[in-house]
From TrEMBL:
Annotated InterPro entries: LprI-like_N
Alphabetic keyword roster: Signal
Sequence intervals crossing the membrane: none
Domain Lysozyme inhibitor LprI-like N-terminal: 69-149
Keyword Metal-binding included in the entry's annotation: no
Tagged with keyword Signal: yes
Pfam families named in the record: LprI
Name of the protein described by the UniProt record: Lysozyme inhibitor LprI family protein
Signal peptide stretch: 1-17
């Protein structure tokens, strides 16, 4: 039943600039831009979720009540991963321009962060219990990825 819902959602025309989930990755850029112009870093992790959930609930007719949320968390996480990759690459280029040592330090910090995020989210998944473990893990991964984007963006602000 879930696969049928995925196929139907994949074939539908998205209502937003994002994918068939209804998640609009441009919402992330707008939130980060707004936060920067206001001189602060807002918590943008949940940005776009409300619109995605409304869209997903309207499109999904299956029997899994958690599917729309899981779908939107996944779409949000994928958008944050893309943003993280772009932000990390820009920070790495900036650090590389300053010499090899800072770039290598950034690479090591990112590797350590990935291990930290995975451990933290595994704990969140375990603490949530069997019935909500998947959602808790997905939410944690998305939130921690968003926080890392904000942290990497702040590296450029500190100079």
């Amino acid at each position: 039943m879930i696969r049928a819902g995925l196929v139907l959602m994949a074939l539908s025309v998205p209502a937003y600039a994002g994918d068939a989930s209804g998640f609009d990755p441009l919402a992330i850029d707008q939130c980060l831009k707004d936060a920067t112009t206001q001189g602060a870093r807002a918590d943008c992790a949940g940005t776009g979720m409300e619109a995605c959930l409304t869209y997903a609930k309207g499109k999904y007719s299956g029997d899994d009540p958690d599917f729309p949320l899981a779908n939107c968390l996944d779409a949000s996480h994928q958008a944050w991963e893309a943003k993280l990759t772009a932000t990390y690459d820009a920070a790495l280029q900036d650090q590389s321009a300053k010499g090899i040592k800072p770039a290598e330090m950034l690479r090591q910090a990112e590797r350590s962060w990935i291990a930290f995020r995975d451990d933290l989210c595994n704990q969140a998944r375990d603490a949530a219990g069997e019935d909500k473990a998947k959602l808790a893990g997905a939410r944690c991964i998305r939130d921690e990825t968003a926080r890392q984007v904000a942290l990497l963006l702040s590296l450029g602000d500190a100079e």
